[in-house]
Design goal:
Elements (H helix, E strand, L loop, with lengths): L1 E4 L28 E6 L2 E7 L6 E7 L3
Antiparallel strand pairs: 1-4, 2-3, 3-4
Length: 64
Amino acid sequence: MTVAINTAIKHEHRRYFGAPSCPNCGVLIVAAEASEYVGDGHIRHRWLCEDCDYDFRTVVKVSA
């Protein structure tokens, strides 16, 4: 599985069951605000940090 984040990360990116930490403040985000299949096995997730209101996206490549 490959994850790409569209912003520079200020804090270590920790993953727990596929959930990232906020790149801005480092708080664990449990659930994505939205997810969409964008084709060719890629799924885009939109995340919103409840602590600092930082909005970011990740893309995951799912292999069959």
